[in-house]
């Protein structure tokens, strides 16, 4: 049996394994090897049918490759590996082309599942990865069930519902699911009458526009749906009013918190007034500093818009400053743990988390760990956007599209408190209104989708193309892009959407002149930040002709700031000798000591010292700093780079007045090859995320081949997290 140590007998070393299986990294090889070594005793003790040695070898090879695939899938962002995805399949085969060497883990995992027929089409290329053919699903299930996965009192991997997990990720999912479900089982303390009164006052009938009188007001439903639950999700695309709605929700919760204690306290203390009794503790958070800043601004806007409609004392109790999740939890440098956890819980009564699509599974679990059981959690986000960089797809898992419908009890409650009984008699049924297509999605009482964009009127190009892309409609989206070419010059200026197919210099250089050139001429750095937020070039990749590094250099060339070749550093990393007044930078590495985080944006600016001497400083917007600007010596900065262009991944949580998304240049099929990693990097979620970063204007540089590949591609994350309310 000793010679059937799969890690040793199948591949003698990592290089051998790497040559056989496409896309594995050393970490996968060593994980699988360690697992097999740890399981040796269990493998030896299981008698394979007829005790035939070849069968035992086959089993061990399969078990070994399952661990290899599990590690690869985790790196690709999946929280587990469904056995159905590998059972009977040829995994890890492929070509040793340059492109495949550059693929990300996620693409590799997709590629593993691609059709074998691809091979014959590309027979001209060398097939160097033979891959591994897994035994059928039922055989894999049997082998795993026979193995004792518990080693030295520790369950290293877990098999649950035919999903194979690393123990930690199983625990994250299990713990998060349990924390959410226990909140959903907490009964509501407010009466329907009080809730109805509160909703009626913040959604006055006479404020409804004539054109909207026949529509279901999903914002009102969202508020009602979240008030009576300790966990709720309000999901929707850009500008559908998530922040507007949640501000009304917070106002309703503040006013209800005033009513309830007043009733109790009135018996004991008639002197109490409402104002003194509303000590409800609310906190607003978002995954990044930029997203937190945007949330703060949107809440301030919403609150000022509600003056006159909602009691000023109630509005005054809604916080306006959001912070990052990391700050809320209290970062411990060089540790994945936080100061606030199950042993040191936060005192908040309500936590609002925005941009939840960016929050990964471990972080979301840690947030729930740090909250008291009674804390109400409200999640906001757009489930169609790219999932989090690290493992998990929390928002997409708990906000499946299309909506699976409300339970009868919840529907009755909503119709009651929203005063929709009359509507119901007239045949309005919320479930039929949300279920646009028959589906198998689980029932979701805690979830409300906002569907009507308040930013895009449905006629403008950005909203339309975002919809077409996320629905995978290649023809419609390409048509929308092409229509922009036929508009006359005057309307083209007004047009939200522009297809750029000329050489970059023709259309990008004027945009650089319009938006980036004036930055350095601003009289102060605050104005420079305002200007910088007007425009951004977005790329799908870092490397390649249309990658961030290349475009940043190209834009510097347009600005007359070309980097001398000898100063160019690897991976776009900025050399301090290349800094100049007005250069926008992005931090690439967390520095907890300085309080600077990956993705923070700054501007290099001449700052005058006491003696009137000017020094280049890195300036960052920070509301608590003097004049709202924090200044740091560039030599103290962690890794950073220029940010005229940035990846779509990094723009999540940010918006710009005008976005230029560069996927390829002219309408030339050979251009496709210039996108590093071929088409696999593109997905409809990536395009949708890029498109929806634009508030007013969107320029897309692409050709039909590249565009089609993007719209067809889809990000799929495996996970076992599901909150079916009907079960
Ligand atoms: N019911 C409404 N009536 C009038 N204006 C509204 C309504 N709902 C939202 N708005 C306005 O639409 C704009 C977008 O709303 P909001 O910022 O809340 O959307 P969002 O979904 O949070 O957007 P984002 O994509 O920025 O996350 C805001 O100016 C807001 O005031």
Short description:
The chain has 727 residues and is an alpha/beta fold. It is globular and about 75 Å long.
What level of helicity do the residues show?
A: 25-40%
Broad shape: globular
Structural class: alpha/beta
**How far apart, in Å, are the first and last alpha carbons?**
45 Å
Approximately how much beta-strand content do the residues carry?
A: 5-15%
State Rg: 28 Å
Catalytic activity: ATP + H2O = ADP + phosphate + H(+)
Binding site for ATP: 236-243
Protein name: RecBCD enzyme subunit RecD
Domain UvrD-like helicase C-terminal: 643-700
Fold and architecture overview:
The chain has 727 residues and is of the alpha/beta class. Helix content is 39%, strand content 15%. Strands 10-9-11-12-8-13 form a six-stranded parallel sheet. The protein has a five-stranded parallel sheet with strand order 14-23-22-15-21. Helix 29 links the parallel strand 22 (656-662) and strand 23. The longest helix has 27 residues, at 242-268. It is globular and about 75 Å long. Residues 1-8, 97-105, 110-125, 262-277, 488-493, 669-673 and 675-679 have low confidence and may be disordered. Adenosine-5'-triphosphate binds at residues 219, 236, 238-244, 298, 305, 454-455.
Task: Offer a few descriptive terms.
six-stranded parallel β-sheet, globular, alpha/beta, binds adenosine-5'-triphosphate
How are the SSEs placed, and which strands pair?
Layout: H1 6-9, H2 14-20, H3 26-38, H4 40-45, H5 53-75, E1 81-82, E2 90-95, H6 98-102, H7 105-112, H8 117-121, E3 127-133, H9 137-146, E4 150-151, E5 154-155, E6 157-160, E7 163-166, H10 167-184, H11 192-202, H12 218-227, E8 231-236, H13 242-268, H14 274-277, E9 282-286, H15 289-305, H16 312-316, E10 323-324, H17 325-329, E11 350-353, H18 361-369, E12 376-381, H19 394-398, H20 408-417, H21 421-425, H22 430-434, E13 447-450, H23 461-470, H24 474-483, H25 489-494, E14 497-500, H26 504-515, H27 525-532, E15 535-539, H28 548-558, E16 584-587, E17 601-608, E18 614-621, E19 629-632, E20 640-642, E21 645-647, E22 656-662, H29 684-691, E23 694-701, H30 704-712
Parallel strand pairs: 8-12, 8-13, 9-10, 9-11, 11-12, 14-23, 15-21, 15-22, 22-23
Antiparallel strand pairs: 1-7, 2-3, 4-5, 6-7, 16-17, 16-20, 17-18, 18-19
The structure holds adenosine-5'-triphosphate.
Adenosine-5'-triphosphate (ATP) binds near residues 219, 240, 241, 244 and 455.
